[in-house]
Amino acid sequence: MNSTTTELGKMLRKLRIDREETLGDMAEHLGCTSSYLSAIEKGKRPAPAGFASKLAKLYSLSPDDERDIAAAADKTVRNVKVDLGATSDVKREAALVFARSFDELDDDTSRRILKLLQAKRRDS
Q: Is 81:48 a contact under the CB 8 Å cutoff?
């Protein structure tokens, strides 16, 4: 990520302006420092887990706004950690093969995997 304002940063700034808040005000409401929040806005730090739902709750955002913020926050994620401790052997193998093959996946294959996983989530 670079140090320019991210899509998430633009959303946060708009939310602050709409609520007539400063960066410090929003940071205080979120329970973090203004420098940490600024780093999230500028793409220097990823948004923490649950960031969108915390914002939605604090600012009474609509479900659509929460989804948009969550999608923008997802774009800031650099790493994904998967706990394989209590999973089946086949799930463990699938996760490891995926991780090892990740850099070699083309966009078409990635889209097919994404579509499959999204359909599975909808069916659950």
A: no
